[in-house]
Amino acid sequence: MAADFLMHEKIWFDKFKYDDAEKRYYEQMNGPVASPSCQQNGASTILRDIARARENIQKSLAGSASTTSSAGPGGDQNELVTRIANLEVENQNLHSVVADLQLAISKLETRLNTLEKSSTSHHPSATPPTQHVTPMKKVESPAAPPKKVELPSAPPAKKVGPSEADDEDEDDDIDLFGSGDEEEDQEAAKVREERLRQYAEKKSKKPGLVAKSSILLDVKPWDDETDMAKMEECVRSIQMDGLVWGASKLVPVGYGIKKLQIQCVVEDDKIGTDILEEEITKFEDYVQSVDIAAFNKI
């Protein structure tokens, strides 16, 4: 009963042998490399271990095949045959990989030997590079600190007695050439008055700035039957000193009704907005109301 159970299980009984072979292989790869002969010996031992493992696999497979041929169905035998074929293919691949590694190691060794020989024998001695030396600038010696010039000290002031002070005051009061300060003051006052008079005349002749404003008026009619052209003509007929009419347009309000939007410029000192509204609302047949839409100082 146990044999029948194990017959259908895929158990690798010789796995420890492959583990040992793999361990020895990595020990050989990671250990110190002494010479190419040692590497070849390590590779040969690896190949030997692989061959032994292969034999063990074949034996185990043969034993399992015999048991399955006697007791198992034909499908298991086909499976064993395919497994054997796969193992052989893997074995061939391992052989080719080991051969490639040996070839690559030998090529690297030969290349290193040739490079070492060429570097030691045929490498010319390099001439020392010429260095460009920049001319040295003349370093000026630091200037000597300026010598401190000592000025001769002023003689000590003499004490003036009361008698000498009186003599000096008397000398200041005496004017030998006469004083012209009063005449000079009169002439300066005349020149100043003349200049002030000329400035006042010039300022009076210069026109002053006139304050103006730009007003935008909304003149609304009674209904949609109001003659807007006649209403605009009536508004423009208002003439005053300091009033100038500008552009105008009709703006729709709603229900077919339009309002007159007209612009004018007025002088602030002469015309006010109240007077302008009163004059426009006098045309009661056309004008219902007047509103100021915009007011700007110029």
3D architecture notes:
It is elongated and about 140 Å long. Helix 3 (36-71) packs antiparallel against helix 4 (74-121). Strand 2 and strand 3 form a beta hairpin. The protein has 298 residues and is an alpha+beta fold. Helix content is 54%, strand content 15%. The protein has helices at residues 2-7, 15-30, 36-71, 74-121, 162-173, 181-205, 228-236, 273-281; strands at residues 212-221, 243-254, 257-267, 287-297. It has a 4-stranded antiparallel β-sheet with strand order 2-3-1-4, covered by helices on one side.
Key features of this structure:
elongated; alpha+beta; 298 residues; four-stranded antiparallel sheet
SSE map:
Blueprint: H1 2-7, H2 15-30, H3 36-71, H4 74-121, H5 162-173, H6 181-205, E1 212-221, H7 228-236, E2 243-254, E3 257-267, H8 273-281, E4 287-297
Antiparallel strand pairs: 1-3, 1-4, 2-3
Helix pairs in contact: 2-3, 3-4
As a percent range, the share of helical residues equals: 40-55%
Strand order of the largest sheet: 2-3-1-4
Tally of extended strands? 4
Order of helices and strands: HHHHHHEHEEHE
**Terminal CA distance:** 120 Å
Q: What summary fits the major beta sheet?
A: 4 strands, antiparallel
Structural class: alpha+beta
- How much of the sequence lies in strands comes to 5-15%
What's the total helix number?
A: 8
Rounded mean pLDDT score:
75
Rg value: 64 Å
Using the alpha-carbon principal axes, give the shape.
elongated
- Regions with pLDDT < 50 over 5+ consecutive residues? 135-160
